Amino acid sequence: MIILILAATLLALPSTAAPPPAALRTRNVIVVMTDGLRWQEVFQGADAAMMNAEHGAVGNPEALKKQFWRETPVERRQALMPFLWSTIARQGQIFGNRELGSDAFVTNGLNFSYPGYSETLCGFADPAVDSNDKIPNRNVTVFEWLHRQPAFRGKVAAFGAWDVFPFIFNAPRAGFPVNAGIEPFTVPPVSRELALMNRLKKEAGIWDTEALDTFTFHTALGYLKQHKPRLMYLSLGETDEWAHAGKYGDYLRAAKLVDSYLQELWQTLQSMGRYRGKTTLVFLPDHGRGGAPVEWKSHGQKVPESKYIWMAFMGPDTAGLGERSRVAPVTQSQIAATVAALLGQDYPADVANAGKPITDVLRH
Ligand SMILES: [Zn+2]
Prior knowledge:
Layout: H1 2-12, E1 28-34, H2 39-44, H3 53-56, H4 61-68, H5 73-80, H6 82-91, E2 93-95, E3 104-105, H7 113-122, H8 142-147, E4 156-160, H9 165-168, H10 171-174, E5 178-180, H11 192-203, H12 213-227, E6 231-236, H13 238-244, H14 248-270, E7 279-284, E8 311-314, E9 322-323, E10 330-331, H15 335-342
Parallel strand pairs: 1-6, 1-7, 2-9, 3-10, 4-5, 4-6
Antiparallel strand pairs: 2-8, 7-8
The structure holds zinc ion.
């Protein structure tokens, strides 16, 4: 009898009482970004124009070609990013191959890092975000927006190789861990492994503002295993640093390393009950770069083609449509709403100027 009354009560609830948590299976989202990796390498692999001393500062072109040069673009991209092409591009979707009629781009008009990360995380380009200076973001990221909800409180974390991330996320206001640059990560428990990483990332510093990717990745992976966040952000920076340095071989090796991190991350997720079959991976850069053989080192407002990026999605709610072709353009400003939508939340309903979710990745 009690059950009947309960059932009747539930049926009598107005339909507006419970927003349909959609029929989505995603319960966790991991967003991974790698700074300034060009769509050209992602879709076509290594470019011969820079595999030399003149345009890529390559000391041993033969060794580099052995590692990354193949006859066709499809073979070359497979050699560069084997996990992306063998797994993500089969089980998920990747946008941005301009040669196949799939454009992905940033809308901030500046084509450099802080504006790109802010556009990605907040869902819109703010004209006031116009430098890489360490200014606390006046805008709320979708991470902070979700973290304000009880279901996500204490279940959000962000890791960035670049030391500006605490400002991009406005960490003091956001209230979740944001570890970046060579700052030691001190959220307990600090294992011996983590303590050593904290020390090494400081000692092995090459750049003032950026940790080597290996330390940022392993710090994030350790946190994921230990604390099992529902929403995690990981940003890697070597692809951009080596490109600015003009070192094409190191740029390619950094891209391959990121691909191997994605594989390790995905395998870890699939080995954990909390994540298996319930987690969507989102992967993109903050901006593109100029063309071969010289402008590839650079990006920004004066390099218009550096607005073009790529983006990949894989998870239980994303149909395995693979490499997309002849589709409507997608923009970086749609990522925030897409992340929220995967978690059953309507972000643009609250943030009116945010881009709309990319619905193609939300239907199985
Ligand atoms: Zn850059």
